[in-house]
């Protein structure tokens, strides 16, 4: 037996030295015929990574060696063209091998996948004898089986075809031949063909399958009778999902998983909550009866999340079901972010300890672009999670659309998964044993190769889109079949009784016991752990019930700040720095010494470095975050000699907290959703998503609306995500000016988010540090600048960073402005401040004060009052902004400002100075931009 395999067996608890000869014999039998060993041993051997590079380099076991030598001979023998083969038999042999390949490639198109029998399966010529110049006369001829794993070197053609049909054209249809990696394909072929897609499951396994189907069906029937007409988006027609989920969790646990994170929309969600996660049925019934269970605004019951612990062969496993709005697929990247955070916490870069499961609807899977974005992130450095199990509950109807030509442009709803070469297993949902087989196969593939895999469970909806529908109005033929069709559970129970696996009384008793458990309000998950003793939960206690005015000491001793600064600008020998970047780092050395004022990029980097020094982890992603979209950050240095990169922030000191800085792929929606999911799972530290331009956040508006601004009030989930959104009118046109500040302010309520517009390097330094240090976990939206990154007036000193704090309102800074002489008070936010004070200087006006609102929400009433109080002789109040009047902060914050202004200046009304209302955010021509900017500044100061 080869050495690594022996070590693997030896390390398993139920193996011992005295049993190795016996185990070796079992393994040999398994290699010849997996069904010749018990299911328990088959499950064990299935999980051995026999085809990975790790094992293929070792001296093989004799049987493995013989098998691969034979395979090599067969492949060499038949990798010749028909023109070079002499005999008729040899030519036909090649045709047989082509036929075998056709079944592997296209057998799924002949598979019996639809429980309703309505799916049109067109004739596939590749699977016909005649297509390969074979005839009925060849059926009794023996042919070499080539690379097939049928455990026979030669077979009659009729037997080959029969076994191919059983393997590839029965209840499972496989799509994996699009995978480029030969090793992956051979692994799948061995697992599929060796049992011909029909492993022999033991009686206990089959009984357990029936019990889970009984629980799934029982809950739906119970809810239908107790709450008739109530919407629940039931699982009827797709009950096989519940045994599938049970197997995924139990098998994940046996493979070493400690956490499983699930994302799904509403179809079957209540059933998963009760029968997979172990939610107490009584709690669900209370929700149906409208009782308020949580101290939030709440959401409908089929959007709520849940978590629990279950016991598996490998120990306790924590299960989390993510909350999800009705934007169906948007939960998928949120789950990935949550999983990545858990993997980071567990130091699990391979994703062996935390497993993501995404459950989709067929129409949404094919129709919503975020699915593609989520697949695209699956193997990227910033977002990979070791492979996701994707389950499609394919009920063949999208709302009321059931014509394929209306719902998608591809044969299958799962074709999108081929873009990342994910294997796809189509399976008939009315064949629970086939469902169980592909579930085991999918999870083992995920663990073996660390890649996504898709299970397309073809099923149906027994009661239409929801329980208030009359589905026959739009699908008369489908529902005429459904109304006569026995349920999955009934069919399987009859099968087991007919095969003598169980008595009918046993099946009936399952139904009665499940009904009694529901009546009694008992948990229906037998493996549920009611009192978990594991450390699988993140402790959110320090972040709960924190007041908005909770302080945060963002000061940092000057000497230590300079020490950190020296580390930031120290570049190891051998790294050749690009000329302009070298100048940036030389200037930062001067800033550290006090010879130059600090600019924005350095203050921001110092904020990150000091947080790391204090023990706060940091994660930053965006489409150009390493360099910075406007070339201001250069946190990553690229060696001009060999192209390798060096990140000073990752090399400050040994044992420092995690520092992740990734340039993301070109996505807003999925990436922002990922970072939201990450931040809801990792409370400590600073998590930032940076838009290339703030305007581009438009592409992630659903994430902002459904999660970031409302998640805490709908689901009680805290989130400390920071969004950096470049914002400012520089004449770059309507797509590169506005981060749509007005949209964020419109969403502000109940202290849900922070919206800030910092205008100095010290302000960005302190606000970033405040976000990490202060235990308040609320999203922070920063309208970050562009031109201010290098503005000669937008500078700070080291002392500004080492002392002080973030100021919600910045007062007038000119010594020439005496409060009692001020007649005009101009209030603004953002970079327009610098245009205003420069024009004021040019006009030699000393009776105008300019005040900056740096935090727009929550509105800083007391700070605003305190800054304005000295100006007692004001005659004119002006709000000045760059954005058009119907955009920006004017309409959203006018009433908030007036609360203080009407108190201090009861006779005055604040007026607007800015661009006129516009359908677009900004002008496209520089000349128009300059003209508008001149006009609004003049209007604010002298108009």
Summarize the structure.
Residues 598-791 form the Transketolase-like pyrimidine-binding domain. The protein is α/β, with parallel strands linked by helices and 943 residues long. The protein has 33 helices and 25 strands.
Characteristics:
single chain, 943 residues, alpha/beta, Rossmann fold, 9-stranded mixed sheet, 25 strands, 40% helix, 13% strand, elongated, disordered N terminus, oxoglutarate dehydrogenase (succinyl-transferring), thiamine pyrophosphate, KGD_C_sf
Structure explained in plain terms:
This protein is of the alpha/beta class and 943 residues long. It has four domains: 1-79, no CATH class; 203-516, Rossmann fold (3-Layer(aba) Sandwich); 558-798, Rossmann fold, CATH 3.40.50; 811-942, Multifunctional 2-oxoglutarate metabolism enzyme, C-terminal domain (Rossmann fold), CATH 3.40.50. It contains 33 helices and 25 strands. The chain has a nine-stranded mixed beta sheet with strand order 3-9-10-8-7-4-6-5-11. A seven-stranded mixed beta sheet has the order 15-12-16-17-19-18-23, with helices on both faces. The longest helix has 24 residues, at 203-226. It is elongated. The relative contact order is 0.07.
């Amino acid at each position: 037996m080869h050495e690594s395999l022996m070590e693997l067996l030896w390390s398993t608890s139920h193996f011992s030295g005295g049993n190795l000869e016996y185990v070796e014999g079992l393994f040999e039998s398994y290699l010849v015929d997996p069904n010749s060993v018990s299911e328990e041993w088959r499950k064990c051997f299935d999980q051995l990574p026999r085809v990975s590079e790790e094992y293929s380099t070792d001296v093989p076991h004799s049987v493995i060696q013989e098998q691969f030598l034979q395979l090599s001979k067969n492949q060499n023998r038949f990798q010749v063209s028909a023109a070079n083969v002499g005999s008729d038999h040899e030519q036909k042999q090649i045709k047989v091998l082509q036929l075998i390949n056709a079944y592997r490639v296209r057998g799924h198109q002949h598979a019996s996948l639809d429980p309703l029998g309505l799916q049109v399966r067109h004739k596939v010529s590749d699977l016909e004898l005649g297509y390969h110049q074979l005839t009925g006369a060849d059926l009794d001829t023996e042919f070499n089986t080539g690379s097939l794993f049928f455990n026979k070197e030669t077979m009659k053609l009729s037997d080959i075809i029969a076994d191919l049909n059983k393997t590839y054209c029965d209840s499972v249809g496989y799509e994996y031949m699009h995978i480029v990696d030969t090793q992956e394909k051979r692994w799948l072929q061995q697992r599929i063909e060796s049992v011909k897609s029909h492993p022999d499951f033991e009686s206990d396994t089959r009984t357990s399958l029936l019990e889970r189907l009984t629980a799934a069906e029982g809950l739906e029937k119970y809810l239908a009778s107790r709450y008739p007409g109530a919407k629940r988006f039931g699982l009827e027609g797709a009950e096989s999902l519940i045994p599938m989920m049970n197997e995924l969790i139990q098998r994940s646990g046996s493979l070493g998983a400690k956490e499983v994170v699930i994302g799904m929309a509403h179809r079957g969600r209540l059933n998963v909550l009760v029968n997979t996660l172990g939610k107490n049925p009584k709690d669900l019934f209370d929700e149906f009866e409208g009782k308020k269970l949580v101290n939030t605004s709440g959401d409908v019951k089929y959007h709520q999340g849940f978590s629990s612990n279950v016991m598996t062969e490998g120990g306790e496993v924590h299960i989390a079901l993510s909350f999800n709005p009705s934007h169906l697929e948007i939960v998928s990247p949120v789950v990935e972010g949550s999983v990545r955070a858990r993997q980071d916490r567990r130091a699990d870069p391979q994703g062996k300890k935390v497993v993501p499961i995404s459950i989709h609807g067929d129409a949404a899977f094919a129709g919503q672009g975020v699915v593609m974005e989520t697949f695209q992130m699956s193997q990227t450095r910033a977002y990979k999670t070791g492979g996701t199990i994707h389950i499609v509950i394919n009920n063949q109807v999208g709302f009321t659309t059931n014509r394929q030509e209306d719902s998608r442009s591809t044969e299958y709803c799962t074709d999108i998964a081929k873009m990342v070469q994910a294997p796809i297993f189509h399976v008939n949902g009315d064949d629970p044993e086939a469902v169980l087989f592909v579930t085991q196969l999918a999870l083992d593939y995920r663990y073996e190769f660390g890649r996504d895999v898709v299970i397309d469970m073809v099923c149906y909806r027994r009661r239409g889109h929801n329980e208030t529908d009359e589905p026959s109005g739009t699908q008369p033929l489908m529902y005429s079949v459904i109304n006569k069709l026995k349920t999955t559970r009934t069919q399987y129970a009859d099968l087991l009784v007919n095969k003598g696996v169980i008595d009918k009384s046993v099946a009936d008793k399952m139904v009665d016991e499940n009904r009694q458990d529901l009546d009694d309000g008992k948990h229906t998950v037998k493996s549920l752990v009611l009192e978990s003793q594991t450390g699988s939960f993140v402790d959110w206690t320090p972040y709960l019930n924190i007041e908005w005015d909770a302080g945060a000491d963002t000061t940092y001793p000057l000497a230590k700040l300079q020490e950190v600064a020296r580390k930031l600008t120290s570049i190891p020998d051998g790294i050749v720095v690009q000329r302009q970047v070298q100048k940036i780092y030389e200037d930062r050395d001067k800033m550290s010494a006090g010879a130059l004022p600090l600019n924005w990029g350095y203050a921001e980097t110092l904020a990150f470095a000091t947080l790391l020094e204090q023990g706060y982890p940091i994660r930053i992603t965006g489409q150009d975050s390493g360099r910075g979209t406007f070339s201001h950050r250069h946190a990553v240095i690229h060696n001009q000699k060999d192209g390798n990169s060096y990140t000073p922030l990752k090399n400050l000191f040994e044992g420092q907290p995690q520092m992740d800085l990734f340039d993301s792929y070109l996505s807003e929606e999925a990436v922002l959703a990922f970072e939201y999911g990450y931040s809801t799972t990792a409370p400590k530290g600073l998590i930032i998503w940076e838009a290339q331009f703030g305007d581009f956040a438009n592409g992630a508006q659903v994430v902002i609306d459904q999660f970031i601004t409302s998640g805490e009030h709908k689901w009680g989930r805290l989130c400390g995500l920071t969004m950096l959104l470049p914002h400012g009118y520089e004449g770059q046109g309507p797509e590169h000016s506005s981060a749509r500040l007005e949209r964020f302010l419109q969403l502000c309520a109940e202290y849900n988010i922070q919206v800030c517009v910092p205008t100095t390097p010290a302000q960005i330094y302190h606000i970033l540090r405040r976000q990490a240090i202060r235990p308040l976990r609320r999203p922070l939206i920063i309208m970050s600048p562009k031109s201010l990154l290098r503005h000669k007036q937008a500078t700070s000193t080291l002392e500004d960073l080492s002392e002080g704090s973030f100021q919600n309102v910045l007062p007038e800074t000119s010594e020439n402005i005496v409060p009692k002489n001020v007649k005009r008070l101009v209030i603004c936010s953002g970079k327009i401040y610098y245009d205003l004070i420069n024009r004021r200087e040019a006009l030699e006006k000393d009776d105008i004060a300019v005040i900056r609102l740096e935090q727009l929400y929550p509105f800083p009433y007391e700070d605003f009052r305190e800054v304005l109080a000295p100006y007692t002789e004001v005659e004119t109040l002006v709000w000045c902004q760059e954005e058009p009047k119907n955009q920006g902060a004017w309409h959203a914050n006018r009433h908030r400002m007036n609360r203080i202004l009407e108190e201090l200046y009861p006779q005055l009304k604040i007026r607007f100075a800015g661009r006129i209302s516009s359908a677009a955010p900004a002008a496209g021509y520089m000349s128009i931009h300059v003209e508008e900017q001149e006009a609004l500044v003049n209007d604010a100061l002298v108009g």
